[in-house]
Hints:
By secondary structure, the protein is of the alpha/beta class. The protein has 26 helices and 31 strands. It is elongated. The two termini are 60 Å apart.
Amino acid sequence: MPIPTKYSTSEVESKWYDYWMEHNYFHSTPDDREPYTIVIPPPNVTGVLHMGHMLNNTIQDVLIRRARLQGKNACWVPGTDHASIATEAKVVAKLREQGIDKNDLSREEFLEHAWEWTHKYGGVILEQLKKLGCSCDWDRTKFTMDDEMSESVIKVFVDLYNKGLIYRGYRMVNWDPEAKTTLSDEEVFHIERTDKLYYVNYKIEGEDGFVTIATTRPETILGDTAVCVNPEDERFKHLVGKNVIVPICNRAVPIIADDYVDMGFGTGCLKITPAHDVNDKEIGDRHNLEIIDVLNEDGTLNSFGLHHEGKDRVAARMDVAKELDALGILVKTEDYTHKVGTSERTKAVIEPRLSDQWFLKMEELVKPAIKAVLEDEEVKLYPKRFNNTYRHWMENIRDWNISRQLLWGQQIPAYYYGDGKEDFVVAETIESALELAQQKTNNPNLKIQDLTQDKDALDTWFSSWLWPISVFDGIRNPNNPEIDYYYPTNDLVTGPDILFFWVARMIVAGYEYKGEKPFENVYLTGLVRDKQRRKMSKQLGNSPDALKLIETYGADGVRVGLLLSSAAGNDLMFDEELCNQGKGFANKIWNAFRLIKGWEIADITQPEASKVAIEWYQSKFRQALAEIEDHYGKYRLSDALMAIYKLVWDDFCSWLLEMIKPDYQQPIDSKTFKDVITLFEDNLKILHPFMPFLTEEIWQYIDERSSKEALIIAAYPKLKSFDNQLISDFEMVKEVVSGIRAIRKDKNISFRDTIELSVLNNENLSEQFDSVIKKLGNISKMEAVQESVDGALSFRVQSNEYFIPISGAINIEEELKKLNDELKYTEGFLKSVQSKLANERFVNNAPAQVLQNERNKEADALAKIETLKASLANLK
């Protein structure tokens, strides 16, 4: 069939993706092959494709396509995460647009709206991944709120509770007043900012004196229950045991002494608000202080805020400060730079808040996961430097707050039957809970209607930490054929920002529930940043439209553009020009294919140059393949791609095709044509993981193929030995050809005109490539000589000298002047370098590399002068 002049990405990509889907190439079932398994880091169900997804999933697709070509049973499990906070926020916003308040709905009514939203928008990102070429086993698509997935989560909760690892505790937690839920420590970012520090006088009860405190949050003054000083602070020892009057609310509270107070910080007097600061809470516990919470769950002041009730905390802060000033007790304000806890999801400032929450004890659970990564290396992190981060987090781990005050998510399976805090049971179903409650209360008359399930939902991460197990139903059915075959998985590709959130917790879950690692290798990508090194984000408006990039440059172009500069763990400085480079690479390969298929084939003798060229490229390909496989083994995918890029662009397109190209309007011999097609097919195989669409299109054009012969399931090239000497010799040949072409261009000698070449072969370069040099240099005669050739221009390659007679082809006088000028300049340059090298101070103090560079300059200049003098001698 005719080959189009231009490569059309839009037509090709939809055609071949549909073809792959139609023939079920992405689907995997257990068989007798070696499995290769990847589970996708499930994107939020609220998400749309962004640059981070593009990078992460391109890397996964490269790995899975390579494994498929290697004959492994490749299984890439896709799916999405229910993302409790983000999804609930989306649904609440949608309801608000419809005039519906979430608080007016029952749990069941709200979940109906959430599921409706999920079914409508939840699959968007997975469909977008198909545009990128991702070869996931879509039949296996999972959602963390699927019935069987939720059952697994609940089963694990009950199991851990029964093991004594989950408990309910009244603790100070991180509260997100926008999402109205608690967050784990890992979901809180500490962002540096500058606020006002307010200095306020508190009157000492029954006296004229006062103490001065400093606070960034004057609105919490209304919740003060003590003022604290250091017991060794001589300034305040006489005040301990007395009371002060809390401003505005006029409440008398004690002055207490505690070692926690830093005498050198601030005024030395610390206001204690146990409900709003974790350290204040600990001091309050030690001194049996009253706890007064002045905030509602949405961050507004409650009735303890008196006449400020109902105001947002920020507005109240300003108003309370004004009131303190009006009362004459605001001493001063000053700027204060500190770090403020901020919600990862909503970006709201976190409030410390006391509440009953569910916690998972982590200290013992993490021990096998620490050993697996840091001692036994059963799980390897790439780059290895992230081991230090992993160690820090895991060895300083705190109990995991797993409850969230949300409706969207797995509801905590705790059922209350009485008024007391301990009047509950934990069970997988309400029926099982009833039996337990009847046994616990010794009351067989207790009914299901007497039970009330805990309103909280589980942290989303408590669902996704089971992902490599639960996607194969390994929690509910621990030894089913699929979990036994696919687990542990092979590679995990994700960002370092969720190394603790997700990766570490999956390792913990793997050892707890399967007794082994969940995956062998973790490839940690960097963040995608713009050219100014800013993280790409919607807020900054610096993130390009991912689908628009695919439309403009093609999926293959975008994949190449992303991977050309995305070394593991290093941030990617994204430049759209990289995608253009990828598109240009695709066009280069397409045009090379059109060139080959455009040659007429004849049953004629194979030219010597073509025979040598084929032998050279076979060795060059094998050498490159060994390098590429080494890069894969070290998860240097950017380096692997660059090796392929250079092999195809430089060695195949620029050199091999030139060496075998038939003369104008002449046919190519059938042997060379067959060989170059085989080599081209090998190129396509190693390039396919990176550029699946282009390579499949060309593969199918090369020959009529059955569905069993599609490139996606072809056999990957095997590693074979290669001739290093052949490859090394050809590097010299390249320099010789370049030297000939440079003289032709410089002397304006037409490339269509034949010239002669004499060689002073001091390097004993094999004559094997003479036919290649003659063809590429359009040499009519090539002979070895024992000494310099008079009346010829020359150039040097290592210690070999090459002479081209130019009698009558150039203006001798002009050439002499040009060579003399160049000689004069080079001798001046050499003099300046040698002067520097003669300077003892420079030689003794310069870094070794700088010194070596200068010596290299000297050697190059000396060689050039020798060549120029030889050329001048030949012209005289």
